[in-house]
Amino acid sequence: MNLGIVPDGMLERIALASGLLPTPLVTVTWGMGLSRVVVAAVNLGVFDALAEGERSDQEVALAVGTDPHGTRMLLHALNGFGLLRRRGDRFRLAPDARRWLLSGGKRSMVDAVRFVGLLWEQFTDLEDAVRHGVTQDFHRPGRPAEFWRAYMRGLASFARIASGEIARRAPLGGPPRSLLDVAGGHGMYSAGFCRRFPGLRATVLDLPDAADHGEVLVAEAGMADRISYVRGDLREVEWGEGYDVVLLFNILHNLSEADGRWALERARGALRPGGTVVVLDSEHSAAEGDLSAAAGFNELMFFLINGTRALPEETMRGFLLGAGFTGLKSKRLLTVPLAVMLTGRAP
After folding, report:
1. Mean pLDDT estimate for the chain
2. CB within 8 A of 56, min separation 6: which ones?
């Protein structure tokens, strides 16, 4: 998946085709603008203020408690980016905004957008991180509760979309009775498996701050009686044993390669004989040549967050084989097109 420039009219098409349009400048300006404008509109409640129908800029400002002139400028930007429709000084939601950017919507990505707002903080120090090779741990102790709330709810937004397909397509060899979700703080992947398998009970292992907010999300999903939490760093607490399934979702890219190999060995020890490990992580091609936008951006983002990197699929397969897993399978998912799901059986 790549982002690109879509010209509005014939003159812009000619400029783009002729090579006279400074596309890097357009990309950096529009990309920055669109991202920051949407984060601000979500945080200020602008989309929710238009949920019931068309409103004037003055009415939106009154509803969200903002300056009328500043609000009008923000609404104009949202209209320009195609997220609002405009008629005079009145605005209404465009279909994409109504589908994805309302707090109460069935497919709401509001919490995910707020999570993107957290990532903006990491990227403000990008030049220093590149100059010195030193980054600040995204998961560092002392973060305020609101950070963890936004973080867990943001990740949960993505997980709710994908959890059903993952639970359906993971080759488990039969209905599981017990599942360990390592670093699965928000609990939504565990909830997806529990919905798929009525007899399943899940345990989520994660940092105390993540677990505190995950328990709230699990309760909201009606799964508090089937999903329990173990608090602690995955490198320091016991994982238990005898599980039918162990999930390692979006965790290997947060670990060093040595810790990644160790995590797969630990997963094998936590499984019963014949149990299944399921790994989900960002796609990355080890081949020489150009990277996809997702692979290149993930390389940088994980460096900024933890000083780590996205791993090639072959590297992750090597971790699985080195830990003794057999029958490895790889799947691509419709709901997570930028990731790969790997599974293996414990001997």
Report:
1. 90
2. 89, 90, 91
Residues 302 and 174 in one domain: yes
**97 is in which domain, residue-wise?**
10-103
**Pair 203, 138 in one domain:** yes
Tell me the C-alpha distance between 114 and 6, whole Å.
26
**HEC string for the chain:** CCCCCCCCCHHHHHHHHHCCCCHHHHHHHHHHHHHHHHHHHHHHCHHHHCCCCCEEHHHHHHHHCCCHHHHHHHHHHHHHCCCEEEECCEEEECHHHHHHCCCCCCCCCHHHHHHHHHHHHHHCCHHHHHHHCCCCCCCCCCCCHHHHHHHHHHHHHHHHHHHHHHHHHCCCCCCCCEEEEECCCCCHHHHHHHHHCCCCEEEEEECHHHHHHHHHHHHHCCCCCCEEEEECCCCCCCCCCCEEEEEEECCHHHCCHHHHHHHHHHHHHHEEEEEEEEEEEECCCCCCCCCCHHHHHHHHHHHHHHCCCCCCHHHHHHHHHHCCCEEEEEEECCCCCCEEEEEEECC
- Which of residues 43, 69, 103 is at a domain's end? 103
Asked if residue 198 lies in contact with residue 136, where contact means CB atoms within 8 angstroms, the answer is: no
**CA neighbours closer than 13 Å in the CB half-sphere of residue 1:** 10
Structure pTM?
0.85
Structure tokens at 168: 């359906």
pLDDT in tens, 24-66: 655 555 567 788 999 999 999 999 999 999 999 999 999 999 9
Point out the least confidently predicted range of 52-66, 111-125, 149-163, 194-208: 111-125
Do the beta carbons of residue 217 and residue 249 sit within 8 Å? no
